[in-house]
Amino acid sequence: MKRNLPLLICFVSGTVMVVQFFIPHPVSRDLYTISSKWFIVVSAFALVLAVGNLIRSHYNKLKRRLEGWPYSIVTLASLGVMAVIGLFFGVKADSTFQKIYLNIQAPLGATMFSLLAFFMASAAYRAFRARSLEATLLLVAAFVVMLGVTSLGSFIHDKVPDFAEWVLKVPNLAAQRGILFGIAFGAIATALKIILGIERGYLGGGS
Amino acid sequence: MSIFERLTKIDRRIIYFVLGLAILLPLLKPWGIPVNVMDRSRDLFTFIEDSTRGRAVMISFDYDPQVMPEVHPMAYALVHHLFALRRKVIGLCLNVQGTGMAVDVFNRIAAEYNERARSREDSIIYGRDYVFLGWKSGYVAVILGMGESIKGVYPKDYYGNPIDELEVMEGIKNYRQIGLCISLSGAAFPDTWVAYAGSRYGLRVGAGVTAVMGASYYPYLQTRQLVGMLAGLKGAAEYETLLDEHNIPIKKKTAAPGMDAQNLAHLVMIVFIVIGNIGYFYLRRR
């Protein structure tokens, strides 16, 4: 029962939503509207679950003094402080919540991402070698696009940006469309496996 | 170690240092290399100018501070454009961290307009000219739900005002009254907008994404499932250039000053890759 009930809910929900999509009847539309609202409510519960899980996981880490436990204090304190400030003092443009967000979280996040430029430069220098014809083509395409999409391309020659656009609009587009088709077919196959109960990983619990 | 071996094994700290200089120096002393505008950016600009007349425009702030250096300047430029055209603007987020970004963008651009406004009519007023709906969990359900009723998903705005009472929402029930939705994102949210709002409800979608994501959206551009796209800091700088060309003044540009740094950084990366390959070819021939 513990396993069969979720499988049944999944099968009925999945099948009803697929069938509903192809029936433009008021009853079908009402069902769809109610389902959408339920979806949002269930997602909200998932959020509560996630916060609870975060607190429990870091509390356990602190209690057992596991490696990196001081960071758990920072995480829990940040969570608590931001929640209290946001809930009790508002989130308007001139609020403390927004000031903390813009002056602490935003620069920290932007810094982390910006560091990628340095790692990418180092990795590109080490990995980008013209070892074969394919690698050489990749290298040339990368150079053309890197130059063409910045302002440097038109400085070198006015046809460089056009060539970069062509690379993006023709060979790149063809490859991306192939990938998209692959993803779409994969998603359909996975959805069918889940609806039919063949794929049961989401139930958890292992064997 | 021969010189050619050294060329293939440059210490990463040297690369970091040279790249750091290449980014820092142009930021301190910009050269002002002109920005060439790509078709994808011009298409988005033209669509907003010509095809959203009399209709509201939705901006979905689906990005977080991590991609702020690339995507935030796009948000500034787009909101600037929409306010200049006096389009009704509806902001929302599918990424919870986007809320702070949206508040900052609306607050800053509205303040800029209100500084030079001579009357209430000239001003940009919250609730009359724009609204920020905030974030709701379950992004697919949010997109699908708004197709039926925006109020059904967002009965109140981010600040707790019932959206029924806001002038900006008068006559707006669902996507039928929305001329365009622009998803600004560092993840695959534009795909979701295209798949659910575009395909199911016929909502026109535009995108603003990071530079590395740009290439993967060309299939959507070709089929016009995306009306246009801004990619990376360059995309934002292109949009600022288009605003300049159409005499829409920006008090402080946020993307264009970074373009020189990006140009030089690209050049430095290319030079390092070439150096590495010179060493590699020499060693292979030997």
Please describe what this structure looks like:
The complex is a heterodimer of chains A (207) and B (286). Chain A is mainly α and 207 residues long. Chain A contains 7 helices and no strands. The longest helix of chain A has 38 residues. Chain A is extended. With 286 residues, chain B is an alpha/beta fold. Chain B has 2 domains: 61 residues; 220 residues, Rossmann fold. Helix content of chain B is 53%, strand content 13%. Chain B has a 6-stranded parallel sheet, with helices on both faces. In chain B, strand 4, helix 8 and strand 5 form a beta-alpha-beta unit. Chain B is elongated. The model of chain B has no long low-confidence stretch (mean pLDDT 93). The interface between A and B is large, with 61 and 67 residues. Chain A: Keywords: Membrane, Transmembrane, Transmembrane helix.
Radius of gyration of chain B: 22 Å
CATH level-1 class of the largest domain in chain B: Alpha Beta
Mean pLDDT of chain B: 93
- Give the strand tally of chain A: 0
Q: How many domain units of chain B? A: 2
Largest interface: A-B, 61 and 67 residues
For the sheet with most strands of chain B, the description reads:
6 strands, parallel
Report the span from N to C terminus of chain A.
16 Å
Oligomer: heterodimer
How many beta strands in the DSSP annotation of chain B?
A: 6
Q: What structural class results from the helix and strand content of chain B?
A: alpha/beta
Number of domains of chain A: 3
**How would you spell out the order of helices and strands of chain A?**
HHHHHHH
Give the count of helical stretches of chain A.
7
Mean pLDDT level of chain A: 90
Q: What level of helicity do the residues of chain A show?
A: over 70%
Strand content of chain A: under 5%
Shape category of chain B = elongated
Dominant shape of chain A: extended
Keywords (chain A): Membrane, Transmembrane, Transmembrane helix
Transmembrane segments (chain A): 5-23, 38-56, 68-89, 101-125, 137-157, 177-198
